[in-house]
Specification:
By secondary structure, the chain is mostly helical. The chain has a single domain (about 65-285), classed as Orthogonal Bundle (MetI-like fold), CATH 1.10.3720. The chain has ten helices and no strands. This is ABC transporter permease.
Amino acid sequence: MTAPVAAPVAAAAPVAASLERHVARRAVLRLAKGVGGALLSVAVICGVWQLLVKGFDLDPFLTRGPLDVWNYLTDPANTAERALLREASQVTAVDAFLGLIGGAVAALVTAIAFALWRSVEQTLLPIAMALRAVPLVAMTPLIALIFGRGLLAVTVIAGIVTFFPVLVNVSLALRSVPRSSVDLMRAYGASPFATLFRVQLPGALPALFAALRVAAPLALVGALLAEWLATGKGLGYLMLAAVTTFELDRMWTGVTIVTVASIVLYTLISVIEQLTLARYAPEQAR
């Protein structure tokens, strides 16, 4: 009696192995495509930047081109500068990462609450939009006064700029699920929670990752703003101090690091998006 059952199982093993290899190849191709796109973006930005500097004959005392930044970073005499920039970059990276994760998680939880209870959305969404209208520069001193001038304040500031794009995009996506899919779940007696996690959330994954691609550079900007106005640490403060002391090589290098970091974050989230969609929503993967 066991032979007929064992035969299909043995026949399915090569198919599963082939499928796994296919998924692995697609993952490698997506990674290569993402890295290639990021390198191309950096090359285009550097080319346009250099053309603007040379084409408009900008003041060499105030402006630097990508070649100037590269020479500054690779000069053996600037070992101390490289260490200073590396340390500041690490601080800003931690600030932006915590803000991105905190803001995205808070927005996702809020969007789920909106999808489950419309009264919560009707009550909180106008308040959230009103708060969004307040300039972050005006809110930063108040946030620093409430949460102090440490990591918590930076996380809150970076999380605020992350929160709103994720909240709006995911909320709209959760409501845009085909009505027929929701009705089918209800016909089978599924609870609102089951419908949310089996139908609405998988359908909202593209919107979530699209929002994260937008929010990641914004989290970096929020971290820089907090460092300028609240903590006095990281790349934000280093760039501000460099402007006031006319250490323009350091300032332009900081701008370059922030730009490259934004491109890397965007690319990384795009790669994670494709891998996630291939696993949980293959029909929506590009």
